[in-house]
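To close the section, here is one more complete example, presented without commentary so you can practise reading it yourself. The ligand is biotin.
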Amino acid sequence: MSGQDICEQLEISRTAVWKYINRLKEEGYEIESVTRKGYRLLQSPDFITEEELRQYLPEGTLFGTISYYDSIDSTNEEAKRKAAQGDPDESLYYADNQTAGKGRRGRTWISPKGEDIFFSLLLRPELPVESASMLTLVAALAAAEVSEKYSGEACQIKWPNDIVLHNKKICGILTEMGLEMGEISYIVVGVGFNINRSVFSDEISEMGTSLFKETGRRIPRARFLADFLTAFMKRYRRFLKEQNLASFTEEYESHLVNIGRQVKIIKNGEEMIRTALGINDKGELIVQDDTGVTETIFTGEVSVRGLYGYV
Ligand code: BTN
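Output:
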């Protein structure tokens, strides 16, 4: 595109165009400049610029602020710090790399640079405290939808919120909550997607994988993140109106990898084997023992595994 065309379309001076082009180059865009011809974009950088993310986000998807970090301890921790400083509802914190990424149950979430997606959403919903954990399942539905879109294959949910492709985990969700006088002050929904990573330690590759490893295709991270946010916020707004998961159970169960299977439920170090039947409108797992007695399992208290491995 010629410099003149850019000036006219954006109604800015030639000097401004030159300055912006240089800034884009500094940000990692590869731009060829040819005298009297103009500029040609050869390659976008392999990180998610805020401009690019906004370009793919439909108007009105998020009403809060968007903050990007090259490197941060944990986007969940950052979202909680910012929540305490008064950041608004529907704010997004995302990073190219986390130095202390957190998983559930005190585990570490490995977060290398330039490959995957790590982000946290700060939400300030008017919800009873007991409903906060349901948001994790709402996020899992959005994560499954976008994983299917980019992998072109069916993706499952391992209750409550791991996303599974080819029986291995590609995404994890960690939801944390801040209370004030017994009421929700904020909820942070933190999501880690294994996108373009190709190297996994032996220990992790038994259970975990990435979309790239499974499909052989590199995935544009900005578009993927924007699609997740769009899919999640659509469901989130519906959930806020309904305040339960009744209208989501059918969609959720259609992805639920555990359904009809035996699961090992580990609670306070004790194991029990049950058959998973589905979820109720609170997102609890309905399970049955071999005498036909059913009970529900609440997300906070247990770890669920397949009988012979991860699922
Ligand atoms: C799990 O154990 O499955 C949950 C993993 C959650 C990881 C994400 S990455 C972005 C956000 N920041 C964190 O420190 N953790 C979550």
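Once you have examined the tokens, check your reading against these statements. The first helix runs from residue 3 to 10. The chain has a mean pLDDT of 93.
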